Amino acid sequence: MAVMQALGYPGRVSSSLLDHPMAKKQEIVDQALDRCGATFGSMKSDPLRALRELGDPMMPAVLGLLKGLVGTKVVLAGGTQMATVLCAADALGIDGDVSIATTKYIVEDRNASFVETVEELGRRWYMADPGLERSKIPALSCYARGSAKEGVGAGGAILAASLRGVTQQQIVEGSDEVLMTVELPKPSRA
Fold it and tell me: In terms of DSSP bridges, do strands 74-77 and 125-128 run parallel, antiparallel, or are they unpaired?
């Protein structure tokens, strides 16, 4: 969110919490901008500084890939973090056929501005519906209720799987099966 605002985009990022702490996030963004002497839009002409001061090391790595893949169709997998990468790509003048695939949990998050940000940039987005409301695992079904939206590229993975004929039911059942095999750590005795 800080990178977007430094570049002049009013983007709002999603939250993994049901009670979205937008005021707290904005307070932290304001502090981060103050720390590096930036204001809304002041780093539009120096997006690499915005990334260095306010971003995540993954962001310049993805931008480097986008720069190297100009001329190739690219679908980023992620939500508001990848939307931020597209804001930086726009500021750097990196063009190309780049879109984003994310889950419906990000698209439908009323507190986030994923769709507005991506469309403002003139990019396409794809929405994958994992169907996790049908999961037998409470930790997965909570995604469908609006919490734990941290998918780490789940939308892109689900889109790719569906293009290969994997059904939503297979995704839900496979996710449940994998999570049922995870052994939780035993509490340590102090």
Answer: unpaired
**Nearby residues of 95 by Cβ (< 8 Å), 6 or more positions away:** 70
For residues 95 and 40, give the distance between their C-alpha atoms in angstroms, rounded to a whole number. 23
Total-model pTM? 0.86
Count CB-CB contacts under 10 A for residue 123: 17
Measure the CA dihedral 95/101/102/108, to 10°. 80
Distance from C-alpha of 110 to C-alpha of 132, rounded to nearest angstrom: 19
Cα first-last separation, the chain: 41
Domains annotated on the chain, with CATH: 2-180 (3.40.50.10210)
Give the H/E segment covering residue 3: helix 2-6
Which regions in the chain score pLDDT beneath 70?
A: 148-151, 190
Query: What does residue 127 show for φ and ψ, rounded to 5 degrees?
Result: -115, 125
Is the distance from CB of 17 to CB of 105 less than 8 angstroms? no
**CB 37 within 8 Å of CB 64:** no
What pLDDT is recorded for position 150? 67
Are 28 and 22 contacting, i.e. CB atoms less than 8 angstroms apart?
A: no
| pLDDT given at position 20 | 75
